[in-house]
Amino acid sequence: MTDRSTKSAKVAASLRRRHAAERRFRLYGMGAVAFALACLGLLFFTVVSKGYTAFQQTYVKLPIYFDAGDIDPKNSGDPKVWAKANYQGMAKKSLRGLFPDVKKRRDKRALYKLASSGAAYELRAIVRENPDLVGTTTDVWVTADDDVDMFIKGYIRGDVAENERRISNKEMAWIEALVADGRLEKRFNTTFFSAGDSREPELAGVWGAAAGSFFTLLVTLALAFPIGVAAAIYLEEFAPKNKLTQVIEININNLAAVPSIVFGLLGLAVFLNFIGMPRSAPLVGGVVLALMTLPTIIIAGRAAIKSVPPSIREAALGLGASRSQVVFHHVLPLAMPGVLTGTIIGMAQALGETAPLLMIGMVAFIVDIPGGFTDPATVLPVQIYLWADSPERAFVERTSAAIMVLLGFLIMMNLTAVWLRKKFERRW
Amino acid sequence: MGKADDVTVLLLMVILLGLSAWAFHSGRRQALVLSNGRARTLHSLPEYYGFYLALCCATPALGGFVVWAVFEQQIIEWFTIAAISPGVRLDDPAKLDLLLNDIRNLANGNIISRAVDPDLQAAADYYLGLRDLSFVALAAGMLALSGAGVVLGWVNLKPAFRARAWVEHFVHFVMIGCSVIAVLTTFGIVMSLLFESLRFFQMVSPIEFFFGLEWSPQTALRDDQVASSGRFGAVPLFAGTLLISLIAMCIAAPVGLMAAIYMAEYAPVRLRAVAKPMLEILAGIPTVVYGFFAALTVAPLFREWGAAGGFLISSESALAAGIVMGIMIIPFVSSLSDDVITAVPHSLRDGSFGLGATKSETIRKVVIPAALPGIVGGLLLAMSRAIGETMIVVMAAGLAANLTANPFQAVTTVTVQIVTLLIGDQEFDSAKTLAAFALGLLLFCTTLVLNVIALYVVNKYRERYD
Amino acid sequence: MHKRTLMLATLAAFTFGDHAIARDQIRIVGSSTVYPFATTVAEQFGKSTGFKTPVVESTGSGGGLKLFCSGVGVEHPDITNASRRIKKSEVEKCHKNGVTSVTEIKVGYDGIVMANSKASAVMTITRKQIFLALAKDVPGPDGKLIANPNKTWRDVDANLPNVKIEVLGPPPTSGTRDAFAELALEGGCKKFPAIKAMKKKNKKSYKAVCHSIREDGAYVEAGENDVLIVRKLEANPNAFGVFGYSFLDQNSDKVQGSLIEGKKPTFENIAEGAYPVSRPLYFYVKNAHVGSVPGIKEYLAEFTADKAWGEEGYLTDKGLIPMPEAERNKFKTDAAAFNNLSM
Questions:
Q1: Of the four listed, A97, A111, A145, C337, which is most buried by Cβ atoms within 10 Å?
Q2: A399·B292 Cβ contact <8 A
Q3: pLDDT digits over B251-267, tens only?
Q4: Integer Rg of chain C from CA
């Protein structure tokens, strides 16, 4: 009896131990999933918390006297003459008017720096649109300098020693006076969504990079989609089972795992140096990215075609259709949602890719919005890389904001893919 | 190519498209006419006759265009050189090239490097004339070719003509061509890397490159400059790459594997439905974002922790880059492992349960060993991904080629060096630039070997239970 | 040729052969020190005129001049920035490649600073000590040249801190490197009478001694990217970095400049010439491109306007130290007339 009870006690103990191990193991698994999700959360939190402030920008309201004598001394009425006037001077004069007791040269220069150097162009645009303003004094909202912006947003703290911050006590006093006057406020940052790159953080925007991404992806799509789908159809439906097909298949699988930077080297050696295509052009970027995404599209396309049940093919063949008719009239339309999903995922990959583009001259300072396939351009991820390397404090929040824009696009594309899959998914 | 030329070419293409549409239409009609309205007597559906004629129209013209695009420049230049008056002519090929460049630019209304003398102007005018002529010839040639194609096709147009077979064959060949592009890409990669690497190995001995312990790729640019002698030993780079990849795998392998096990075996359906796509998002985030995260969030954090703990952690430590890279490849490991774990047949599990094993025991002792080759393959694939990853290390790891195993120090990687050697550099004759290609080749080969092994193992394993 | 044709045939479907592409914006390459100034001017120029904004790439002075001198035509850059003067060998290379007419424009001055993190003490150093710390070969106890044995700053001079010598500096493509070797190292090297005597006898070996920087790890080549150097200094309080004054100015909240020969690297000291390690910045314009690439003339006008490079111009905000007015006027006339450079 005792023997049995000790045995059952042993079993019970070992069972307890085994169950504890079971719970531990399960906990490890949950921990792993939780860790991965926590990383995702932390990443998003970092980006959003650093970047959301960039969607607002500090503006300063200046009473500007649009001096007719300055703008159009000869009364010519010619917009070209107007465009050349010294608008910077008007902004400076206005600031002097707001703080008449600033006398020293050095102080004056600090005062002028409250408004962005882009203010002059904003004033010019205002005059161009409302010629009636010439000769009047009007309150105008112009962009404030990035240091002022950083101070207002709390990134430059006022409570540290003066020589350790980029805003002096005097400047702080001016800013406070302006705020008290209601002349300084944060507004929605339209520049960020409409401008190209700039040396001044407050004038920099993502539109140029977004346009570059658009042109690049257009080239990628135009090449990768038809070629990828054709290759997928051939390999899945027509290819004879021979050595050549095997080589192609192995090759495609390998190509999908080749580091992206190697495609950049290919682009540099073949497209730029060998063929002599222009540097920094979306055309070259698009071709390189197309070669890179091709395997993804082919593999996804093949999977989609494979999932169409053979019964459909047999039925069509039984009715007298040819192999091509079967494929193009029946299999391909049914596989299309899957093919499109794969294409979108491939495009999303291309949109986020940076490394190969560094090799083909897309890391340059490009202000103008590209308007074609051979204009110098940069793309969103490269812009993020460039800004992340810039010394100005204000570029940190803009980098994060650019990441948010990029992630927004990516999530949109992925959701489209998921939606497509859900909507057209068929269980055979 | 100038904008005007682009427009001309575009116009030609539109015309060709229109012609092909017309050919399709008339081919289909003609087929019906030939069959006297009894479509049954035709071999193929009338559309196929239309497609056939449209292809007859478009293909020769497009072929002609490709030939023109490849040879036009060369032929025109050849003619121009032959026609240049001896006064301007130069025998030195380099100078001749420059002269041609001037002529081209002068003709484009561009920049030129010398005073425009009448001879040069004449040559440019001649060149321009030839270019105009070549465009006329292109247009005429394309029209003639498509016309000839249509006429030849028309002759064949009989009710017994096997139009469908013909069209299908054509499409077939186009598809083969598309599949071969992937092979051509690989070929292009190997060729471009190989040629530049060979040039590099003419300057630097392969022994130094493969076994040298010092990497400082800076060489003098001018004869009268005193610069570093340039050392091209790639060992520190590979050591650095390996160190960072290993750190990444230390994070990704356990977390990814456990996550996969949990998702496959334990997770309730609802959690799985939410967590799986979330993990996939982690895989879809651009690497530049991870780089930003590593450089601006993780690295300073580690530095502060290190400072608080009293030891020095470099702000470009291998640790920060490695950990962030590990986070990036978690989804790779988990989704690949998930696949192999779910592929293990249920009978194995049931057998284990039947013997009284708990779930975790079954997993550890039965499922994992059965899935092991597949998991190893997945890990190898993830490792290859880590080795080739660029942006995270470019932004978060250093440039200093330290040969160290200390994860708190800065190391550099192969990809970082490729990027630094090539950014902004457009010259192709220095060992420094060519070294990037040699590194690229080495990287390509390393990842290729890993991939081949991994894909082989994964595929082999997947088939075993099917 | 055959290979080329073959490759072209496969790619001709999406490129129409290698035609020279007409370019309608300026392309600028060159020094990373001049880069912030060039980009600022480029941006102002693009916004205030109807021209397209120039595309600026940072390649280092040496790399930039190499590209610049590689020929005339749309595929070659129009302007290169340099943080040192063009060398005779480079002018010859330019000539050989058909770049015969080049306008030289001095932008202003820039000091080269040796800076460290604000977390540690400011260093006071002489050029002779810099030479002893960083040269490849230094005179030994018996006056003969030996491989540099100094490991810590204390080894160089008993007054210096007992810290490992670790200096992050630019690579040979950089003009900052050339200027640093010329001004700081050679400046210190000349203080040794034995080496100075060598200058007359054998100029080449004199140069080799004075310009060679040690390669045993004490001097770390840190690439063209100055931002990275600053970031590394922040991380490692014992390390020193070598870069332009404009960068020190932008990052004055993180790093501090060492005093050289007792002079602090400040705007005033450099402008007056009191700070010993300061050099002029230049850019070079390919005259053959003027009038064909649109906007070069206007770009120069923007750069040489007082509102840009003057005493109160916007470039001083970016850390440029302007030239005296007479010098500015000279280069302004040069720029307007495209005077060919004479060495």
A1: A145
A2: yes
A3: 999 999 999 999 888 98
A4: 22
- Residue labelled with tokens 């044709």: C5
pLDDT over 60 (residue B113): no
Q: At B326, list the tokens.
A: 């590990």
Test A251 with B174 for CB contact under 8 angstroms. Answer: no
Query: Rounded mean pLDDT of B150-154?
Result: 89
CA nearest to A113 within chain C: C317
Q: How confident is the model at residue B461 (pLDDT cuts 50, 70, 90)?
A: low
Single-letter amino acid, residue B204? V
Residue B226 lies in a domain: no
Residues 398-417 of B with CB under 8 A from C: 398-400
pTM of the model: 0.85
Cβ separation of B110 and C20 shorter than 8 Å? Answer: yes
Alpha-carbon gap, residue B25 to C203, rounded angstroms: 84
Segments making up each domain of chain A, as ranges: 56-188, 207-424
Same domain as B428, residue B290: yes
**Distance of residue B199 Cα from the nearest chain A Cα, in angstroms:** 13
Residue A297's closest CA among A233, A202, A361? A233
Question: In degrees to the nearest 10, what's the CA dihedral of A301, A305, A306, A307?
Answer: 110
Best to test chain C binding among B104, B216, B311, B399 (most C CBs inside 10 Å): B399
pLDDT at B354: 94
| Cβ distance of A255 and B185 shorter than 8 Å | yes
Residues 6+ apart with CB under 8 A from C193: none
Catalogue all structural domains in chain C, each as residue range(s) with its CATH number: 19-109+280-337 (3.40.190.10), 111-278 (3.40.190.10)
Q: Are residues B371 and B253 in the same domain?
A: yes
Does residue B416 fall inside a structural domain? yes
Domain final residue pick, B103, B136, B161? B161
What residues of chain C lie within 8 A of the CB of A199, using their CB?
36, 39-40, 43, 318
Report the number of distinct structural domains present in chain B: 2
Which residues of chain B neighbour C5 with C-beta distances below 8 Å?
70-71
Pick among A23, A43, A398 to test the B interface (most B CBs inside 10 A):
A43
The enclosing domain of B275 has a CATH number of: 1.10.3720.10
Tell the residue number behind the tokens 């040794």, with chain if given.
Answer: C192
Distance, CA of C335 to CA of C329 (rounded, Å): 10
Pairing relationship of beta strands C124-125 and C259-260 according to DSSP bridges: parallel
Pick the residue from chain C with its C-alpha nearest to A286: C14
In the predicted structure, residue B230 carries a pLDDT above the cut 90: no
| SS3 label, residue C152 | strand
What's the domain range around B29? 3-161
According to DSSP, the β-strands at C255-257 and C27-30 are: unpaired
Interchain contact, A33 vs B259, CB within 8 Å:
yes
Among B105, B140, B161, the domain-final residue is B161
Predicted confidence at residue B310, as pLDDT, reads 72
> Going by C-beta distance under 8 Å and a sequence separation of 6 or more, which residues neighbour residue A305?
A232, A233, A236, A237, A331, A332, A335, A338, A339
Pair B22, B112 in one domain: yes
**pLDDT per residue over B387-418, tens digit each?**
999 889 888 877 777 777 888 877 888 998 88
CB contacts under 8 A, B 215-274 vs A, are 254-259, 261-263, 265-267
Q: Which stretch of A14-23, A160-169, C126-135 has the lowest confidence by average pLDDT?
A: A160-169
Contacts of A159-165 spanning 24+ positions with Cβ under 8 A: A164/C253, A165/C253
B150 and B235 share a domain?
no
Confidence of residue B427 (pLDDT cuts 50, 70, 90): low
How is domain A207-424 classified at the CATH fold level?
A: MetI-like fold (1.10.3720)
Mean residue pLDDT of chain B comes to: 83
pLDDT in tens, A380-389: 999 998 888 7
